[in-house]
Each structure stands twice: as structure tokens, then as C-alpha cells.
Automatic annotation (TrEMBL):
Organism, as annotated: Candidatus Terasakiella magnetica
Residue intervals of the Cytochrome c domain: 62-156
GO MF term list: electron transfer activity; heme binding; metal ion binding
Key words of the record: Heme, Iron, Metal-binding, Signal
InterPro entries: Cyt_c-like_dom, Cyt_c-like_dom_sf, Cytochrome_c-type_DH
Signal sequence residues: 1-26
Name of protein: Cytochrome c domain-containing protein
């Protein structure tokens, strides 16, 4: 699989229904005259990504047994009691062959579990923290996320269940399929991102019409 580099200048923050790119802010105003500049607190609430090298991992730790209990309470309903998908429509998180050579259904194709497919251990923490449990995302504490990550890593034979999981332990885990991901070599992915004076030639000639959402009595019709 290919890796796709992403420029931070192209990242955006959605606030109040307005998408604000970091490159569009100039001082305390937006160059285009609409939207609002996010506060430091708002940016901090959005900036929760964990990078492949572990940068962004918070303090805290979690044990295997606590992670197993949390998984059974919060995750097993979708992913199965043993994190094997439970035969349902949700993806299995354990199992598979890191060598991708023994899949009966699709020979030579990887089963996309954590242990046989994912390239970075930090992605497990990142995804759980931002998106799980389903329907109640970002409700877990950092210690709880570490605990569930511990459980999943142990079940994928990537961590010792007697050892707590924390930032240092997570960074030390080498995923079996990391080498299966590499930078996309196609020429159209190598176009340089505009990083300076990108918007001088942009002219906004019109804006979306506001007031199109029915209100009052009109909303009841």
C-alpha cells in the first residue's frame, strides 16, 4: 500500500459550519473576510492526532486485564468477544497472516487486522481515542485507551500482557507489515504544495446565499 504525504498547510478546522484552513489565517482576521479564527483551546481540542513516530501520544498507561474488561464492555458487541469480528459485519482486529500467504478466501491478499496489516502501532491508539467506542467517540480517558490498546496488541502477539502499555512501550512495537507501505512513486503525487503566498491570485466573486434553511412557520410545513 502507498503512503500519501499531507501538507499541514492543507489541513482545516471545521468551526461553526465554516471550514478554516490554517493557511487562510492572517493575524487575527481571515484573508477572505468570513469565518472565525479558532482559539487555542479549540485548536487543542482538534489537534489530537498521533503520528507514526508516536509524537502526540499523551501521558498515561493501561494494563492488559483492564483493557480486556473494557473491550468486553464497549467493543465486543461489534468486534466479537475475541476481537475476531464475531462473524458479523464489523472488521476483525486480531488474526490473519502477516506474510499474507495463507488466506483461503483471497490467496496472497492480507487480512486487514491490526497484527497482519496495520503499519504503525500508534495508529491503534489514535483511532481508538478519536473514533471509539462507536456512537460515543472520544469518551475514553487516555489510560483507558492505553489499556484497550494493550489488550489488542497482546492478542496480536505484539506485546507482553504483563507489561503496562504507555507511550514508550507503544513506540517500541514494530509492526509486521510496516514494510508493506511505501511512498507513492507516481509522478502526480510529487507536485509541491504551495506553502507561501498561495492565495494572492484568488478572487472571491460570490458567496453562498444564506437564509435558505426554513425557520419559524416555514420549518413546520
Amino acid at each position: 500500500m502507498f503512503k500519501f504525504p499531507v501538507s499541514k498547510a492543507l489541513m482545516g478546522i471545521a468551526l461553526g459550519g465554516v471550514l478554516i484552513t490554517t493557511a487562510a489565517c492572517a493575524g487575527d482576521e481571515l484573508k477572505y473576510g468570513f469565518g472565525v479564527k479558532p482559539t487555542k483551546e479549540q485548536v487543542a481540542g482538534w489537534d489530537i492526532d498521533i503520528r507514526p513516530d508516536g509524537k502526540g501520544l499523551p501521558a498515561g498507561s493501561g494494563g492488559y486485564e483492564e483493557g480486556e474488561e473494557l473491550f468486553q464492555d464497549l467493543c465486543a458487541v461489534c468486534h466479537g468477544e475475541f476481537a475476531d469480528g464475531g462473524g458479523g459485519r464489523y472488521p476483525p482486529l486480531v488474526g490473519g497472516d502477516p506474510e499474507h500467504l495463507s488466506q483461503e478466501a483471497s490467496p496472497g491478499q492480507p487480512e486487514k487486522t491490526i497484527g497482519s496489516y496495520w503499519p504503525y502501532a500508534s495508529t491503534v491508539f489514535d483511532y481508538i481515542k478519536r473514533a471509539m467506542p462507536f456512537g460515543n467517540a472520544q469518551s475514553l480517558t487516555d489510560d483507558e485507551v492505553y489499556a484497550i490498546t494493550n489488550f489488542l496488541m497482546v492478542e496480536n502477539d505484539l506485546h507482553d500482557e504483563d507489561q503496562p502499555m504507555d507511550a514508550k512501550a507503544l513506540i517500541a512495537i514494530k509492526m509486521p507489515n510496516e514494510g508493506g507501505f511505501f511512498m507513492d512513486p507516481r509522478p502526480d503525487t510529487k507536485n509541491p504544495h504551495c506553502m507561501k503566498d498561495c492565495y494572492k491570485s484568488v478572487e472571491i466573486k460570490s458567496k453562498a446565499t444564506l437564509g435558505v434553511t426554513p425557520t419559524g412557520e416555514d420549518a413546520l410545513r
